[in-house]
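Our consortium's second objective concerns turning raw sequence data into structural hypotheses that experimental partners can test. To show how far this objective has progressed, the report includes one record in full. It was chosen at random from the queue rather than selected for favorable results. The single chain below, 287 residues long, was entered without modification.
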Amino acid sequence: MVVITMNNCPPKLRGDLTKWLFEIHTGVYVGRVSAKVREMLWNRVCQNIKDGQAVMVYSFANEQHLEFRTHNTEWKVRDFDGIKLMMRPKSPDQTEEVLQKGFSNVSKRLMAGRRRKSAGSIEREWVFLDIETDGLDFEKSKIIEVAALAADEAGINLSWSALIKQDKALPPPIVELTHITDEMLSEGVELACALGQLSDIVRGRTVVCFNKGFDIAFLEREYRKNNLEIPFGKVIDALALARKRVRDVENYKLETLAEYFGISSEQHRALPDCETLYGVFLKLNEI
């Protein structure tokens, strides 16, 4: 059994899902499909829902006999001693911590002000994320590089990237495109290690991707394969943002948008792409 619920779902995506599942209510789809079809449907949802939200629940061979997945929603899946739970987002009246007894009223006001200021600075800091893969096939391709940079409007605060060890040679077109070689990957790290490092950077921050349906879908698949908690909360798709705010461009490739805004770019390596994305995102927010 598979159940998918969605908000702000594009009509075309609704039509695609009804080819495989029953729509029993607006945005609610139910059916029985193979694991392969389920993965393909979820990937299609993540790639095409744009700014909408999606949750999938399906039968699984664990103690609960079910598994959860979320996309672009503040509700989070949490593993509690092998039991998967959904953590609901805090309401506004839950954001302030309870102050310890014994502080004066003046001290309490000062501490609350510092917390609000700290919370505000975190909200204004984004993590720009990009990956390189050895192909475009979601079922067969592998991640060969991951990069992230934490930045705010004032500048870049942290840069990180990792090459991922591979068990087979890279296709020549990928080597030509990215200039990443098998020798470089032989000195890389295991993917699980890179994912753990990425989680430390991403957790608690808003993520910005370019075509998030590609990057986030690949990363979430690998987090699940490695039995790691998926750290992504709010994810902004700069591609969707550009399509809304920029009209007079030939196409919506990252390098085209960079040229449009007068930003120098070095393409097809993860970290330079993150830096280009950062510049483009700031310009998009000025429109």
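The partners drew two points from this record. Confidence is low (pLDDT under 50) at residues 95-99, 117-123. The radius of gyration is 21 Å. Both points have been shared with the crystallography group to help prioritize constructs.
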